[in-house]
Write a structure and sequence with these properties.
Layout lengths: L1 E4 L5 H12 L9 H8 L11 E5 L2 E14 L5 E12 L8 H15 L4 E5 L2 H4 L5 E2 L5 E3 L11 E5 L4 H4 L5 E4 L6 H4 L1 H8 L19
């Protein structure tokens, strides 16, 4: 197993990997590969944390990190960070590779001075990488009531006491705008996705907004 920085020659392969990993998971089809495609030129993108995982010289995983913001009650803003998409090829899922990739990336982020990570995900998986509900840090999700314990909104202090040392007792997390690029540019996204092999889009249980 090898983890290294993404190179330009990897772009298309990793976008296809990301598409395979997320297809029909959160919605019919997916948009994560387009987010990645557009994000590499986004000023919030962190190239030092744009990592691929190889097994037997084959790329089987990828993760990217981004800058984000915490908005305090007085309207002032503090730096925060997030990551995703994190992708593992379907043939290699549930074998521990995703956790190993994430732990490596978080250790590297900590070494760069990144102190606090927020993200959206399943607590049952991400608790193994040290994440907990963001509400336990008094960090609120921008799209939910302030007093809500949002089960999918998670956080981790990579550097102990980072929030306290930066004067953050309570704040609202605002995800990077670049994560919504497919929704904001649907025609451009559809044209981009059409350059990949055709796959069937399915409405499945567990997807956002799914109803029987």
């Amino acid at each position: 197993m090898n983890i290294r920085l993404e190179e330009s020659k990897d772009y298309r392969e990793i976008e296809n990997l990301t598409r395979e990993a997320f297809w029909n998971v959160y919605r019919p089809g997916c948009t994560e590969h387009y987010v990645l495609n557009q994000y590499r030129t986004n000023p919030d993108f962190i190239p030092e944390l744009d990592l691929v995982m190889e097994v037997d010289e084959k790329i089987i995983g990828h993760v990217m990190f981004s800058k984000a913001e915490l908005v305090l009650d007085d309207g002032s803003k503090k730096a925060s960070w997030t990551f995703g998409p994190i992708s593992i090829h379907p043939d290699y899922k549930r074998k521990g590779y995703g956790l190993k990739l994430l732990q490596y990336a978080l250790d590297k982020a900590r070494g760069m001075g990144i102190g606090f990570i927020c993200m959206e995900g399943n607590i049952e998986f991400y608790k193994h990488a040290g994440f907990d509900l963001a509400s336990k840090f008094n960090i609120h999700y921008h799209a939910e009531p302030r007093d809500a314990e949002v089960p999918y909104f998670l956080a981790q202090e990579l550097i102990p006491d980072w929030l306290q040392n930066n004067g953050i007792a309570e704040a609202t997390y605002c995800p990077p705008k670049g994560y919504f690029v497919a929704d904001e540019n649907p025609e451009a996204f559809e044209a981009y996705d059409a350059t990949f092999p055709q796959k069937e889009k399915l409405r499945l249980p567990g997807q956002l907004g799914y109803e029987e």
